[in-house]
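Troubleshooting entry. The earlier prediction with iron/sulfur cluster gave an output that would not parse, so I re-checked the input for stray whitespace and re-submitted. Clean input:
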Amino acid sequence: MANLASEFIGIKSPNPFWLASAPPTDKEYNVRRAFEAGWGGVVWKTLGEEGPPVVNVNGPRYGAIWGADRRLLGLNNIELITDRPLEVNLREIKAVKKDYPDRAIIVSLMVPCEEEAWKKILPLVEETGADGVELNFGCPHGMSERGMGAAVGQVPEYIEMVTRWVKQYSKLPCIVKLTPNITDVRKPAEAAMRGGADAVSLINTINSITSVDLDLFAPEPTIDGKGAHGGYCGPAVKPIALNMVAEIARNPETANLPISGIGGVTTWKDAAEFMALGAGNVQVCTAAMTYGFKIVQEMISGLSDWMDQKGVTSVSEIVGRAVPNTTDWKDLNLNYIAKAKIDQDLCISCGRCFAACEDTSHQAINMSDDRVFSVNDDECVACNLCVNVCPIQDCITMEQMPAGAIDPRTGEKVSDKHGDWTTHPNNPMATAAE
Amino acid sequence: MPNSIATNGVVAERLDKQTLADNFTDLHPPLDDHEALVAADRCYFCHDAPCMTACPTDIDIPLFIRQIATGTPDASAKTIFSQNILGGMCARVCPTETLCEEVCVRETAEGKPVEIGRLQRYATDTLMGKGIHPFVRAKSTGKKVAVVGAGPAGLSCAHRLAMLGNNVVIYDARAKAGGLNEFGIASYKSVDGFAQNELNWLLSIGGIELKTGQSLGVDITLDGLSNDYHAVFLGMGLAGVNALRADGEDKDNVLDAVSFIADLRQASDLSKLSIGRRVVVIGGGMTAVDAAVQAKLLGAEEVTIAYRRGKDRMSASVYEQDLATSKGVRILYNVQPERILGNGAAVGVEFAYTQTKDGKLVSTGETFELRADQVFKAIGQTLTGAPDALTIEHGKIAVDEFGRTSQSGVWAGGDCANGGEDLTVTAVAEGRDAAMDIHASLTA
Ligand SMILES: Cc1cc2nc3c(=O)[nH]c(=O)nc-3n(C[C@H](O)[C@H](O)[C@H](O)COP(=O)(O)OP(=O)(O)OC[C@H]3O[C@@H](n4cnc5c(N)ncnc54)[C@H](O)[C@@H]3O)c2cc1C
Ligand SMILES: Cc1cc2nc3c(=O)[nH]c(=O)nc-3n(C[C@H](O)[C@H](O)[C@H](O)COP(=O)(O)O)c2cc1C
Ligand code: SF4
Ligand code: SF4
Ligand code: SF4
């Protein structure tokens, strides 16, 4: 079994699976049970400043969307940061860290954008023995109306300023948690780096309204007839999060900035994907909230089996392996030609591929009178739509055409040379190929 | 094909080879990759899952199903085997309808459980198909344990002991190991020599020596084993069969269902097996169902199961009963055999109707006759050959919760031991748990 031991910005944990700052990490009771279940680390639910804690709504906090069989795909929440007193949280963090010295405990923080506030809270955190801090510049609801969370995360200058204070007043490793509610995620990441952050973590939740109550004419979750936008997370946000992680990983400015990947991690495979795109570890919230702490066992066995298969002995070897293959569109090889192919033994003749291709794509699937579906290579542009709508896994595959063959669609010979848009004759800006 | 289903008497070759081969294929064909993903997706990953509680070996069912759903069937198999080393056989033979699947929340909610048994088979087949044995032995404890009986109880016990670093010698009276996995389970539940393949795969952990043709009480004694080994585990099953106590039981073609099934399991050519035109099976358990169904599949024209109590009391599950009737077997309830008819060979059975009066089963006085050229007795097996020194309770070796018998240094489990249902999976659990206790006592 592969060794999953992980080291992220100097913080060690027995595996790269951390629980993200959220209800699963809101208190000692949860965190102890999470560690017993096998989680490598936790980012404690975000702490605010001393004094009376924030107050949460007493109506529904969550909205959701579901896939087939009511599988939860996306979760929306309007919860604030911790609503328990600062001293209680600090005391509990200290107690848990003492009993679980091999696990990572990071403390998430959100205090007003004032130097004094940060200067005041950091020594209290250091005193707990926690391994690091995460600056919550991400929550998009509630706290952002009070000038914190995403309100800071959307202004790179603020990120840089606060990060600098944190590095100035504390020796703790500092992770800056980014909001996805921004047009170019590279900017806040660069700002965090300039401020001296040891790492960034992303994504926090995405602004969302999941549904509308059509009797009350109010967004859901509805509280006494009104609803506010919330933060979206869960499997549905994974593609957005993966792209943002990759954007930072392949940006030359931030290429060496460690990333903790968050957003829809539900299985070992999701975790491996985040890590391949540059995340040093992953954080999980919705999957644990949906299935309980025990899912980490599947993540552990799955990642370790996959690493064994790949002959990889340490998690650090997978980090960033897919980054060099993540490019701009203009660099994709236009001479790569593929065709869809339907495995007639697997096909159940539902006709979905036909409807998709005939009605909305390239009319490249033929349907016979006795419902045999086959691809017409003369028309197929290998768009992959049929693959994605086919209910049977691996029934339709994309087969690469060998160099030298004639593409029946264009009548042209398949080239064995790389040829992309930068050199394509149709591109007015093409630089001549040598 | 010289004979047909309508040929009188007990004859071979009633069906052609192809029909026989079709009849005896897998009862439940294995799931392919896609089917397995679809089936696994239905699991809710329940907390403190009821299915897991219902499994006698406590397999972490939600976890192994999630591991299938996430594309790691090897990890899934390890989850299964760590609790139940015969998870492959159990996936085929467990009456899941009265165990895990009966209590699956989706059975309760929709009457359609997650297909736990078939998913378990998918995972275990995947890993075993690669010839991978997922466990290695711990460093040697220097202890030697004798196991009597190479059925599920003995094999499970031996494997766990070997894994923990002990050396094990298994003694079995038969020439072939496997117990009822090899000689009892219906053919269509364990096709393609699975029992022997699984046995070899299990033994590949090392540290287990198999001695066949060694019968306790004949070739070896408990005292001898106790002297030569640090501990003894008895997993000898129930080698005897109950008598019918009806007149004419000694007539020709009145046979034990268990030996009929054993012959069938060992037959290299099913067309050479003789079967009656009209077969009567007496009993109400899994053995009765298996004998009846297999008689039908061999080409008997009329097969009747005669059970002395009502449908609700039958120990074969409703699922098994439905399987029998779907194959064309007729089940008669509330009838008991009075005598076997015929001179020399059986030609029929006289039955009396029964009723329960004051908690006792009595004849109503009304009788009827059924034609039969072959009669199978499937009214239960009994313990034989148990060492005299051991306390017997309810006809079985008395054991405590750890599998300890009345004699120190001797453990027992499986069908021969008191407690638990007589099922493969229960035997596996008891063998494993006894092994843990033996190991603890040897290394204390
Ligand atoms: C026909 C039939 C069908 C069944 N079908 C199912 C089913 O579908 N599903 C299910 O869960 N259960 C089924 N069962 C029950 C299941 O097979 C048993 O519960 C299980 O095999 C018990 O395991 P065991 O190891 O205790 O005994 P066994 O499997 O009986 O093994 C005992 C072993 O001990 C050996 N032995 C006996 N006496 C001695 C001796 N004196 N010295 C040395 N060795 C000895 C025997 O040769 C045998 O190998 C069935 C039983 C029968 C009879
Ligand atoms: C109910 C809820 C509360 C959350 N609270 C916080 C928080 O206090 N601090 C924080 O940094 N992120 C918070 N998050 C965001 C998560 O930490 C995480 O970034 C997000 O849910 C995406 O990961 P996921 O798809 O695994 O859930 C919260 C998320 C949820 C669902
Ligand atoms: S999940 Fe628990 S706290 Fe939340 S509404 Fe349901 S019962 Fe109440
Ligand atoms: S969508 Fe898939 S299964 Fe359906 S007809 Fe097309 S190839 Fe066959
Ligand atoms: S009870 Fe059914 S749904 Fe729940 S964990 Fe078990 S198999 Fe899955």
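This one parsed fine. The first strand of chain A starts at residue 6 and ends at 8.
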